[in-house]
Amino acid sequence: MDFALAFFFCFFTVPVLGDNASSKPRSCSDVRQFYSGKGFSLSGVPQTEISGEHLRVCSQGYTCCTSEMEESLSNLSRREFEGLVKEAGRSLQASLNAQYRSFDGYFLELLNGSERSLQESFLSTYGTLYSQNAHIFRDLYGELRRYYRGSSVNLEEALNEFWARLLERLFKAYNPQYAIGDEYLECVAKQTETLRPFGDVPRDLKLKATRAFIAARSFVQGLTVGGEVVRKVSQVPLSPECTRAIMKLMYCPHCRMMASIKPCTNYCRNVMKGCLANQADLDTEWQNLVDALLQVTSRFSGDASVDVVIYSIPLRISEAIFTLQENIMVFTSKVFQACGNPREAGTRSPEDTRKRPNAVVEAKPSPTSSVRLEKLVSDVTSKLREMQQYWVQLPNALCNDKVTAGAANEDKCWNGMARARYLPEVMGDGLASQINNPEVEIDITKPDMIIRQQIMQLKIMTNRLKNAFNGNDVDFQDTTDDVSGSGSGMCADDQCARSPRVIVPNTDRPKLYAYPAENKKVVKGTGSQIQPCVALLLLLLVTLLLRR
Ligand SMILES: *[C@@H]1O[C@H](CO)[C@@H](O)[C@H](O)[C@H]1NC(C)=O
Ligand SMILES: *[C@@H]1O[C@H](CO)[C@@H](O)[C@H](O)[C@H]1NC(C)=O
Ligand SMILES: CC(=O)N[C@H]1CO[C@H](CO)[C@@H](O)[C@@H]1O
User: Fold this and answer.
1) Best mutation site among 101, 103, 110, 112 for ligand 2, i.e. most ligand atoms within 8 A of its Cβ?
2) Distinct helix (H) and strand (E) counts, the chain
3) For residue 436, what is the DSSP state?
């Protein structure tokens, strides 16, 4: 870099100096105007050009910039560039947020609609039997909402609990002439496994509902995690080397009185690729996340579309109740066989609580609802595709035609030293490709830790989404114990195959546990072998953090 600088200095700057050396010093009025326009004081700013040996970033020809001006402009260029990166991140976040809001609103309305239709139709069909037990259904919907919101609700257990409570209530209601205590009900509950009083409905509903809910929940989680990653990464401060490069790109032309000359496009790209090298390393995992989100999105429509499944809940429950009613004699006598005859309670004869559930018509999602779902899915899909390349496109986006001289002016652009063609080739994407970046000095062995951590978050979320796509419940789980273990966890499956093998240090420094809690939440996944892998990845991360 320094060598390159000296090289350019000799071959570009000196002849220019020579030309001008004998002539009258040029006025700094343009620079003064520009400088005060940026809000800086003009005191100490020269009226005419001065010799530039004091310059530390810009090349040292005749200049209008003092050391202090150079520093102020460096600071300014850092602030402006960080502002641009944040701004770009904010618009990506806004897009993710907008999708979150539209899906979330839609899904909660679906749930409300389903619950409302259950309340209305059950009240008219079952009357007091329903109204006395309405809380069972309210609780079910409450659990479904909480699960969707990301609480640690076990969906299967919540559904099982619902059926168990419903059975208790119905069994009592159909046998009012008996005094049925809690102990007896426990025995009744034990018979459900074999007697299946509700037929196939519980199993079938569990299958369909869990698929829909797992997909919905992981989808909104994915959008949230994506937004958080963007927010954190967009706030990563620039390195001093990057600040120098940006200064040279943006404001050295002013110091050299070439304010009207825009930077060469490739020059700008190299600066941005260098400055945003770590960010570009998010690319693979970001693309994976978007792919996984797209996959899960495809689950919302189609055969068992999410609206149909959720709207069918009242009808399915009603079918289950009907099945029990049809078989109540047989069921009761089998229960009596297994649990013994319950004590008679007075003379109350069974009232006819049995009603055919024909009043419970299938509440179908309205046509506008399915149109809305289709539009939602197609919007989300196109928006996600748009943002898939974000991290590698960012450098080019920041070197747009407004900023750079463009292809037409390749010979007459600011190349960092003079108004001339920019010769070096454009670097590739990512940190490893910056080893020969002529504009930004980077230690490619020192990746940015904030960004590494966010890459981890993306991996974890993608894995969760893939599980959701396959209908597997994914759960938060604390792996503190695994991390503090002997460190013998080795990758047993392809989850870790891509990550480098490391020798896990056998350390129990307390810093290990100061790790943010959110990172301890990992995917339970399909097999127990994933846990050691995640633990290993976390350890690798912690080790890197400690070494820093
Ligand atoms: C530039 O920024 C640095 C660090 O923020 C600060 O210490 C310095 O005073 C600033 N210089 C000028 C001239 O504003
Ligand atoms: C859904 O119903 C709950 C109360 O049951 C209410 O607080 C919420 O605002 C409703 N949401 C929508 C989207 O209608
Ligand atoms: C008077 C004179 O020769 N001025 C020249 C000084 O150098 C610049 C290039 O840096 C020329 O554009 C001027 O014509």
Assistant:
1) 112
2) 22, 2
3) T
Contact 509, 546 (CB under 8 A): yes
The answer to whether the CB of 286 falls within 8 A of the CB of 113 is: no
Tokens of 159: 């559904």
| Per-residue pLDDT reduced to its tens digit, 320-365 | 999 999 999 999 999 999 998 888 876 555 555 555 555 555 566 6
Whether 404 contacts 263, CB under 8 Å: yes
Report residue 506 CA to chain centroid gap: 32
pLDDT tens digits, residue range 265-305? 999 999 999 999 999 999 999 999 999 999 999 989 877 78
Answer yes or no: is the C-beta of 20 below 6 A from any ligand 3 atom: yes
The Å distance, Cα 415 to ligand 3 centre, comes to 18
- The closest-lying atom of ligand 1 relative to the alpha carbon of residue 75 is 1
Q: Is 63 in the pocket of ligand 1 (CB under 6 A)?
A: no
Task: Supply the residue whose CA is at minimum distance from atom 12 of ligand 2.
Answer: 109
Ligand 1 closest atom vs CA 71: 13
Q: Is the CB of 19 under 6 A from ligand 3?
A: yes
Q: Is the model more confident about 57 or about 531? A: 57
Task: Specify the amino acid at residue 267.
Answer: Y
d(CA 74, ligand 1 centre) in Å: 9
pLDDT at 439: 97
Q: Sketch the domain layout of the chain as residue ranges.
A: 90-226+295-367, 476-547
> How far apart are alpha carbons 382 and 186 in whole angstroms?
52
User: Does residue 75 have its Cβ closer than 6 Å to ligand 1?
Assistant: yes
The model's confidence at residue 405, banded by pLDDT at 50, 70 and 90, is: very high
The ligand with the least distance to the CA atom of 13 is 3
Beta carbon of 481 within 6 Å of any ligand 3 atom: no
Q: How far apart are CA 381 and CA 297, in angstroms?
A: 7
As a whole number, mean pLDDT of residues 234-248 equals: 95
Name the strand (E) or helix (H) holding 178. Answer: strand 178-179
- Ranking 185-189, 390-394, 482-486 by mean pLDDT, the lowest is 482-486
User: Rounded CA gap, 192 and 167, in Å?
Assistant: 9
Distance 43 CA to ligand 1 centre (A): 17
Closest ligand by atom to 78 CA: 1
Residue 361, pLDDT score: 57
